[in-house]
Automatic annotation (TrEMBL):
Family the entry assigns: Belongs to the sigma-70 factor family. ECF subfamily.
Record's GO cellular component terms: DNA-directed RNA polymerase complex
Residue ranges occupied by any RNA polymerase sigma factor 70 region 4 type domain in the UniProt entry: 103-155
Gene symbol of the encoding locus: rpoE_42
Residue intervals of the RNA polymerase sigma-70 region domain: 17-76
Keyword vocabulary terms for this entry: DNA-binding, DNA-directed RNA polymerase, Sigma factor, Transcription, Transcription regulation
Gene Ontology molecular function: DNA binding; sigma factor activity
Domain of life: Bacteria
CDD domains: Sigma70_r4
A GO BP entry: DNA-templated transcription initiation
Protein's name in the database: DNA-directed RNA polymerase sigma-70 factor
Annotated coiled-coil segments of the chain: none
A Pfam entry, by short name: Sigma70_r4_2
Keyword Transcription appears in the UniProt entry: yes
């Protein structure tokens, strides 16, 4: 890789790493695994950096890479046999209601089926339109809309249930 090309790569990573991490974190729900997914994505991107000028939408390409790596990681994680019982998620009380709402949303997102969670993260966190989400995940547009609707309904039920319990 040429030195100026390395500088371009370093600048690209510096400008976009946080956004990639945020997507991976919301898909995986774990900081370390999200960091690993982003690192794996950037490692592959680094190896291909000499050819990126051929890619029309580099951000979309990298975004697709991190989503796919996150989904691969999630499938590997779910395939593991758990030898001990899972500890329940007990949210820590916060004085800031906004922090508490984010914690409730994250917990509710983790309980959604993988496909619904992925669609919601891409649609609302990444602000991608239905057509892009469909293309990214290889789904029909109507399927993305259905997953969006079901996921939002499930979140409303979860958060409504949690809000009633807390009151």
């Amino acid at each position: 890789m040429r030195p100026d090309s390395e500088r371009d790569f370093a600048q690209y990573v510096a400008n976009r790493k946080q956004a990639l991490y945020r997507v991976a974190y919301h898909l995986l729900g774990d900081r370390d695994r999200a960091d690993d997914a982003v690192q794996a994505t950037l490692t592959v991107l680094y190896a291909r950096w000499g050819r990126v000028h051929e890619i029309e939408n580099l951000d979309g390409y990298v975004h697709t890479m991190v989503v796919r790596e996150s989904l691969r990681d999630r499938r590997r994680w779910l395939a593991w046999v758990r030898l001990s019982p899972a500890t329940p998620d007990v949210p820590v009380a916060s004085a800031d209601p906004e922090v508490e709402q984010r914690m409730l949303l994250r917990a509710a997102l983790r309980k959604l089926p993988e496909r619904q969670r992925t669609v919601l993260v891409l649609r609302f966190l990444c602000d991608l339109p239905v057509l892009e989400v469909a293309a990214l995940l290889g789904l029909a547009e109507g399927t993305v809309k259905a997953h969006t609707n079901r996921g939002l309904e499930a979140l409303r039920r979860q958060i409504g249930t949690n809000a009633e319990v807390a009151a």
